[in-house]
Design goal:
Largest sheet: 8 strands, mixed
Structural class: alpha/beta
CATH superfamily: Leucine Aminopeptidase, subunit E, domain 1
Distance between the termini: 43 Å
Helix content: 25-40%
Mean pLDDT: 94
Radius of gyration: 19 Å
Order of helices and strands: EHHEEEHHEEEHHEHEHEHH
Number of helices: 10
Length: about 325
């Protein structure tokens, strides 16, 4: 039986932005929005779907998922012919819930570069669509939300560049402290815009000490649901291969273990039938952490008879939560 979303709504981007304008309280966010949108109305349509938690399969697919490491943040570049790209949004339970405030973590950066996402949130809040509240987790159940066809209207540089007035970068809390001139220099308007497909999944949070087996199951099930939804949407679009772009999901402000979080996403991508997992590891230690995660995954999947056996092996490694990076 074909797997389908709990609810779906397709919006005209022009109408969406006109009827449900962004609500931006931070002046730097207001500037980025004006630069991204000035004189250019939104175009096309935005498809929003919400998916119920999907039960993990019992057996492990025979072939591992290829993993590619990119030592940079998301570039939203074109995929190879026959591929459809999806980018993980490191969401809060409340979809795009903090886009208008001073913080610029991964979730807020995506909304800043894709301003139509602000109107997606405002529409879901206002319309109260049955089965489609702006929640990626509800009553303890994971409900990833997919957004297809969001225009990326600008690129906002957050890297360290002293010559551009960013000696410490603009990521996290540094964005709100920057002056308007610095923020304006960091914005590159994209004309024409590109289109992005997103998988919004709540990042694991509020952990300490050793990861419990139940936490590992929850994380894999969440990622498996989101990745499976992207795979289904890809097939329905008549495209053969779904490619997922991700990173250290939940490893910034929430202090997740980077090696473990990548290993769990590799497992989820394999279970979901993803053609390729592209891990964006921007800092110097990132590629090494990904390589370690790939090795862990290969070892724990080797000769495993079930998905539960792989989870048990990961739990036996006694991975520990880290600490927040303060962003």
């Amino acid at each position: 039986m074909k797997w389908t979303p709990v609810s779906r709504r397709e919006f005209s981007a022009t109408t969406l932005v006109a009827q449900f304008p962004a609500k931006l309280s931070n002046r730097n966010k207001q500037l980025v929005y004006r630069l991204a949108c000035a004189g250019r109305p939104m175009a096309g349509s935005v498809d929003v779907s919400r998916w119920a938690t999907r039960t993990l399969p019992t057996s492990l697919p025979p072939e591992p998922v290829p993993v590619v490491v990119v030592p940079a943040f998301y570039a939203y570049s074109d995929e190879a012919p026959g591929d459809l790209g999806w980018y993980v949004n490191f969401a809060d339970a409340h979809l795009f819930g903090y886009y208008g405030g001073p913080l610029l973590a991964q979730d807020e950066l995506q909304v800043a570069e894709h301003p139509v996402l602000a109107s997606v949130r405002e529409a879901l809040v206002a319309l109260n669509i049955r089965g489609l509240p702006p929640l990626t987790t509800q009553d303890g159940f994971r409900t990833p939300i997919l957004v297809r066809g969001a225009e990326r209207r600008c690129r906002l540089a957050t890297d360290v560049d002293a010559a551009a007035g960013r000696p410490d970068g603009l990521y996290g809390n540094r964005f709100a402290r920057a002056d308007l001139a610095t923020v304006e220099r960091a914005v590159t308007v994209l004309d024409p815009p590109t289109l992005t497909n997103l998988i919004a999944m709540e990042a694991p949070s509020h952990g300490s000490g050793l990861y419990r087996r139940e936490q590992l199951l929850d994380i894999v099930e969440n990622a498996f649901t989101g990745f499976s939804a992207a795979r289904q949407e890809t097939v329905d679009a008549g495209i053969s291969r779904a490619v997922v772009h991700t990173g250290f999901w939940g490893c910034g402000a929430f202090g997740g273990n980077r090696v473990l979080m990548i290993a769990l996403q590799i497992l989820a991508a394999r279970l979901a039938g993803i053609a390729q997992l592209v891990v964006h590891a921007a800092d110097p230690a990132g590629p090494r952490d990904v390589e370690c995660a790939v090795a862990v995954n290969e070892q724990d999947c080797r000769d495993a008879t079930s998905v539960v056996a792989v989870i048990d092996r990961l739990a036996a490694r006694h991975f520990e939560w880290g600490t927040s990076d303060g962003n």
